[in-house]
Model the fold of this input.
Amino acid sequence: MIHFMLLFSRQGKLRLQKWFVAHPEKTKKKFIRELITSVVARKPKMCNFIEWKDMKVIYKRYASLYFCCCVEKNDNELMILELIHRYVELLDKYFGNVCELDIIFNFEKAYYILDEFLLGGEVQESSKRNVLRAVASGDALQEEGEEPQSLLEELGFT
Amino acid sequence: MPAVKGDGMRGLAVFISDIRNCKSREAEVKRINKELANIRSKFKGDKTLDGYQKKKYVCKLLFIFLLGHDIDFGHMEAVNLLSSNKYTEKQIGYLFISVLVSESNELMKLVIQSIKNDLSSRNPIHVNLALQCIANIGSAEMAEELGQVIPKLLVSGETIDSVKQSSALCLLRLIRNAPEVIKMQEWSSRIIHLLNDQHLGVVTAAVSLIDTLVKRNPEEYKGCVTLAVSRLSRIVTSSYTDLQDYTYYFVPAPWLSVKLLRLLQNYPPSDDPGVKTRLPECLETILNKAQEPPKSKKVQHSNAKNAVLFEAINLIIHMDCDPTLLVRACNQLGQFLQHRETNLRYLALESMCLLATSEFSHDAVKKHQETVIQALKTERDVSVRQRAVDLLYAMCDRSNASDIVSEMLTYLETADYSIREEMVLKVAILAEKYAVDYTWYVDTILNLIRVAGDYVSEEVWYRVIHIVINRDDVQGYAAKTVFEALQAPACHENMVKVGGYILGEFGNLIAGDPRSSPLIQFKLLHSKFHLCNVQTRGLLLSAYIKFVNLFPEIKVHVQEVLSNENQIRNADVELQQRAIEYLQLSTIASADVLATVLEEMPPFPERQSSILAKLKKKRPATKDAPVTYKQTPASQAITDLVDPSIPQIKTVEPLPTQSTGNSLLVDLALGGDSLTETNNHNNLTSSSSNSQESQDNFNAFYTKNNGVLFENELIQVGVRSEFRQNLGRVCLFLGNKSNYPMTNLTTEITNASELSSQLMIDVKPIESELPGGAQKQLQINTECITVFEANPQLLLTYKYKGGGTWETDQRLSIRVPVMLSKFVEGVAMNSKTFFQRWKALGQPQQENQSIFKAKFSVAKENVKARLMGFGFSFLEGVDPNESNCVGAGIVATRQQQIGVLMRLELSKQVG
Done:
């Protein structure tokens, strides 16, 4: 199972953090700091796995962003690596050629997509189409939900 | 500013841009504080905010929080958003709650209420939002309030697929956090059958849940094996076009396959005939596919395919029953060892480690020895080299030990600092385990010290000394080799320690050679003295006094060194004391006494190497081999309390002769309890890994001085104590049994003040941190001032976090085994004197008599051992009645010496 997932830039700026295991804020900050330092220091040809505490970290860099998952010792490394890739694909499809800025300005969407893809630290739905459909149905709901309501409000019915 | 997706919040986008434009950290903080003040005033203001505004502000707060700033308001507004009928507002509300509200927040009741409403909503999207929130927080309170609803959602025929998926994983999270709350029994069969669901997304989510349930109760969910195998079989035999969306870069449902393969690793190989044929077929198919040409050049394709392959190999290793599959797996991994992808090389080395432990594939793994050694030399990534070391260690056996050890020694010279200590331990273990010839072992360890002296931990050099002492065939060689090693102008301090100890014991074996005559040996050792630390110097002084016994001809030289101002006025108390005592000993003791006192050390009790324990501590969870069902030779950790760094000198103590005064009948019944205890704890090295709950052996200490006093799952307290007349020294060995540190360690004698007039207790300070697996010594000096009854109570407090999240305060109250009987020393006397004195003690306060039922055998030998344990002498032939036991002793206190006489009349009658 995944314990947490982080997205951060090459400069070490955290862009997204998702925790599947509860930790106090202080611990989280410490973990984040430690991990960013050790991942950013890795050279390109090195393997994508790091032993870290009694867990392991699987990371991959996409353009200026590092995606990084902390998982249990016996988790399947390659599968986690591809899980990161699938998440990148989902973001890419949703935003259309995603870049770091999309994630900064629409951070809540990045979380919504992640919640449809992973839950409780496990893959909930591996089909790209199904995940995006779920996110899109939420987006659609807001549009239909809001128009009539603001109309009602205008008419003073609320 | 990029386009904002969906219903953008302009204010939020502007704020984010502002933050990004901040040139410095200060500017950012300033901008944030301004925004926080603004939001606060909006929330507090008279004007009611509409949903959009609330959503916007809550979202800004969330953003600020995610930047790493603390947020202490806005929670209520977020909770309000949960009951909004606009989806985006609800969604932001849930996101804020999931990220920012901790389990213990007082708003949780309101949150749970909103969740309940949404769970019963007809709109599945709302239901899913609520489920995701539960899965994100997963508190025990939620488990209690909602734990009944979710299983029903999961198995109901009416639930749509996406809700089933969310509820499966939501349930999984609740079970992890509050296993005792969630009752699943009635649902187990229906949950297992989710493996047959048509929707692969539902199966993907359900397998994770089932995996967790199986780990809790394998028997109840046994039925999942057949279903999982048939599901797996359908996936691996399908073509990539069959599964549509669930095919990932031409690999059919890789996530699901991996999860199924892992689920199967919870069970031993199945006896079910269907499974027995189908599962190996599946595994074979997966291995075959690895040989097929790739369907795509993309790394995603090969990664997904290999992810499944590695998991299949894990399952093959777990079952460990099919030699063909094991060897095929090994060959496949062998190909990866030279793959251009670093990831694959890393993983192949890691998996091969497991294969090396199987009897069926051990030899197949050995074929790759050259490649692995090559990896050690050429890999650029230290983590890959680390795996190569692990594999060499795992594949080592008697046939290749000398090659592997020598390669590892060579590599050590240039190895990364981060892995040196572990490598040293591994080399030391291999050298000992596969030594055919102990001269090779001694050479290897001395080489280790030479190459990586700084990384040679105490366990390693203790162990070489143990072995040399216990095997007389290697002692002469060891002495010669250390003598040669010490010739080097710069040699590591650990070498001086081993050299000092071994020459002190066995220097005589090489003294016949004029090149290593006694005087040369002594001068060689002493030439290192000034470079060493206090501990080593102490050891060297002991070696010198041993020389006095071995080589009387150089006594004057030794005395000259010992009597040097630098020694007898050494600022260090321990060294000063040693120098003075040894000097005295060499001056006054006769040759016979010297020979007895400084006799060669007796062999150490044979036991398992403490280095193994040390290696385990270093890497607590070296890639968990999936649970195997074969009994593996358990190498349980053994607490090693014997420290050979200080050569022990036997001391002969004069017996006290003074006697009589008051008489006191020590209540033997006190010790009665201890006698019912089986005497398992009489030795510090006894393995104590089995007792899970805490165990207090205090009573056993009435009759012994050393042993394990207390033990629970975290901590073990061992005792070594000595008492002489009215003085005592108790060393408590606090051993941290876990892998995590204990911090803020404090010690306090809670009843010191009430005892102060009777017993002086001086607790030496102890370091405040006790690292995982480590042991610290707490020394307590005590003096008996007068007769006392209570035992000192030691309160131990520390903070412990373990692998969890919360640091907890731990308190442990331990009775320190210091009782009056410890200050009793036995006296010999004849029958006449005994009864004379017995009769003299006629006054009532001088006598005490009690009759008690024996809780143990009253066989004479047993009673004798007990009485001696109490410090009494056991006087035979004193009492006219043969079956009576008589003893005498003196209680030594600071104020006076009190003679104690005792008679135990044994009656074999029952009742």
